[in-house]
Amino acid sequence: MNGPVAVPAPLSLLVKVNATSMWRRLRALKSQSRLLTSIIALFIPGYLVLAFWLFFKGLKFVYRFPGMGTLLMERLLFLLFAFLFVLLLLSNLVIGYTNLFRNRETTFLLTLPISRDIIFRWKFIESTLLASWAFVFLIAPLLGAFGLCQHVPWHFYLVTPLLVALFIVLPGIAGSFVAIHVARYLDRRLFQVVALVLMGAMVTGAAFWFKPEMADNGSDTRVYDVLDRMLTRTNFAQYPLLPSYWLSSSVLQWAEGAVLEAGFFILVLLSHVLFFGLISFTRWGTLFYDATSAVHSRASVFGRWQWFRDLSEKRTQTAFAKGRLERIADFIPGLEPEVRALVVKDTRMFWRDTTQWAQSIVLFGLLGVYIFNLRHFSQQLTNPFWIHLVAYLNLGACSLNLATLTTRFVYPQFSLEGKRIWIVGLAPLGMVRIVVIKYWLSTSTSLVVTVGLITMSCYMLKMSIDRTFLFTVAVGIMTLTLNGLAMGLGVLYPNFKEENPSKIVSGFGGTFCLVLSFLYILGSVVLLALAAPWSNLTPTSQGICLGGFAGLSLLLGWAPMVLALRRVKRIEI
Question: Is the dihedral of CA 326, 432, 40, 481 positive or negative?
Fold first, then answer.
């Protein structure tokens, strides 16, 4: 007789099943589109090589700074990991909240005879990986370039990945802890008031602390004096209790050959990961379950405010009256009733998804800080070369922000219809017109953001009216293109089984959209810089560059939409 069959542990089974499922999806994508798979496979090493080269050149430039190159390099490394730790914390908070409390798989697992600790462990691992893969992808070429500049030994490249792997666990733990308590107490009035006050205080304090000090032109002594004060302002990144400090110190010490000193910080990092990891894996399952019960048992997070209860009662009494969004849409001229209904539906779905508009607030907050500080930076722009360079770097920054918006919010719009897509497909509008309406809705919304952003940033940089007009037209064309690319690829590579926008974007189609968006922005900024009226090229060469920008925009914006519209005509619902 055969012996008892070994049953794998639930956590191991969940990891194995999801890894197998992901591997099969990758193999299926390879068989479906070998061309796109090849493009992605070429882009990844291409990006790593290009990023490595850019980081290497930048680090060499910093090291050549007279008298302070090494100090600047060390401080930049501390600052980089400190800010990345904050961004990782925010990313883990948003993705962790969605994955723990707004995920169908989590709801399904809670009905099975599986320990709540096991479920939390799996969702924690999944959330941390989703939130941190971009960080690892970004930091790898930087650390490689740093090692080459420092002439580090070969074992530096073996130790550094282990340090990064330990580092990403801590913001994952902190993000999950904050997500659990936000979910548990978000409906408390005191919690909401204290959270708003703390956020306002942090933003105000950061704006005051990071207010730049500019030097007088032509005064080297003044430049060094201001640089010294700027370095003093960054001392917070060297606070010994920050995990980013442990990572930065271990990397710097190991690169300099001080293995024992680096080992101390490595052990500090490892001990915190083990300590907080053990607590989260063994004690947070009950907290997670209580928070899940609280989330699914309340109707709204504002239910304890009297004004919200009065508003809800008024809505109940006028259940069949037009809502606020419907009344606002009535003021838009030329909208047919069915188009107005689709616009209101998509807007309401976006507003009801807390994670989406919360990410938008974080993104626009960072952009606000960027634009606010441009007015200080523009005071030092006197050389025409630097004026032109900063102008096109600003165009690239605004375009990258647009690419982030389109990839994160426009690409998953079609997939978010989910298994209810057949209801939308039976509407009198038809699937083709629905896709077109979604495209124009996202494009018009993006135009308001991007045109306002580029106009304000040009004003802060004190650019002339003609240059502001040219940049506005360029970013308008790029808005049309990037929205067409995101919407087209979203229809060509839908994922109706997933309701989490982050997971939809993390798939093959979302990655491909992000890759093409970045390549398009890079090519467009270079072509526009060469085609500018104030460049040194001949008029013929400028015309060729301008035609190249127009052709590239037409190809990437028009072709995916045409293919998408052809597909929805034949889609089987």
Answer: negative
Q: What's the CA gap between 189 and 206, in Å, rounded? A: 26
Torsion of CA 525, 526, 532, 538, to 10 degrees: -160
**DSSP code for 159:** H
| Residue burial 196-209, b: 16+ Cβ < 10 Å; e: rest | eeeeeeeeeeeeee
| DSSP letters spanning 206-229 | HHHHT---PPPTT-HHHHHHHHHH
Rounded CA gap, 224 and 11, in Å? Answer: 56
Give the separation between CA 164 and CA 172, rounded to whole angstroms. 13
Q: Is the pLDDT of residue 271 over 90?
A: yes
Structure tokens at 176: 């999950």
CA 314 – CA 317 distance, rounded (Å): 5
pLDDT tens for 221-252 read 455 555 566 666 677 778 888 898 899 889 88
Q: Is the pTM of this model over 0.85?
A: no
Distance of CA 405 to the CA centre of its chain: 9
Identify the CA nearest to 452 among candidates 546, 375, 364, 556. Answer: 364
What are the b/e assignments for 254-289, b being 16+ CB within 10 Å? bbeeeeeebeebbebbbebbeebbeebbeebbebbb
* 273, 169 Cβ separation under 8 angstroms: yes
| 446-491 residue pLDDT tens | 888 888 888 887 777 777 788 888 888 888 899 999 999 989 888 8
* Residues 417 and 342: beta-carbon distance below 8 Å: no
DSSP codes of every residue in 443-458: HHHHHHHHHHHHHHHH
Residue positions counted in the chain? 573
Identity of the residue numbered 340:
R
